[in-house]
UniProtKB/TrEMBL annotation:
Localization per Swiss-Prot or TrEMBL: Endomembrane system; Golgi apparatus membrane
The family this protein is said to belong to: Belongs to the PGAP3 family.
A single GO cellular-component term on record: Golgi membrane
GO biological process, one term: GPI anchor biosynthetic process
This protein's UniProt keywords: Golgi apparatus, GPI-anchor biosynthesis, Membrane, Signal, Transmembrane, Transmembrane helix
Gene name tied to this protein: PGAP3_1
Membrane topology: Multi-pass membrane protein
Record protein name field: Post-GPI attachment to proteins factor 3
Signal peptide: 1-18
GO molecular function, one term: hydrolase activity, acting on ester bonds
Length: 98
């Protein structure tokens, strides 16, 4: 019983930590398609690695990171096209305008 309660509390905490952007249907759909198409097969990974810059290799930027980055900007554009506020991603606060 205690395990069930603790699991429920942890689920609530982790779901509340997700930001609006990376929790959106637009982002999740994009990410899953990108990851499946580019990061799960040997061919997709080889294609990604062959186009990777030296700085990306030094920073250990990987296919998963690339999908997250691509989908963050794609989702941002979708929100802007709909006239919605740009959402926060990955717990990062939105930049304030000066």
């Amino acid at each position: 019983m205690k395990v069930l309660i603790v699991s429920g509390v942890l689920l609530l905490i982790t779901s509340s930590l997700a930001s609006k952007g990376d929790n959106s249907n637009e982002y999740n759909g994009c990410y899953h398609i990108c990851h499946f198409n580019n990061c799960t097969s040997n061919m997709g990974i080889a294609t990604y690695k062959s186009s990777q810059s030296l700085s990306e290799r030094i920073l250990q930027w990987n296919c998963d990171d690339e999908c997250k980055y691509y989908c963050m900007w794609r989702t941002t554009q979708i929100f802007m096209d709909k006239g919605l506020d740009v959402p926060q991603f990955f717990g990062k606060p939105r930049a304030t305008q000066c």
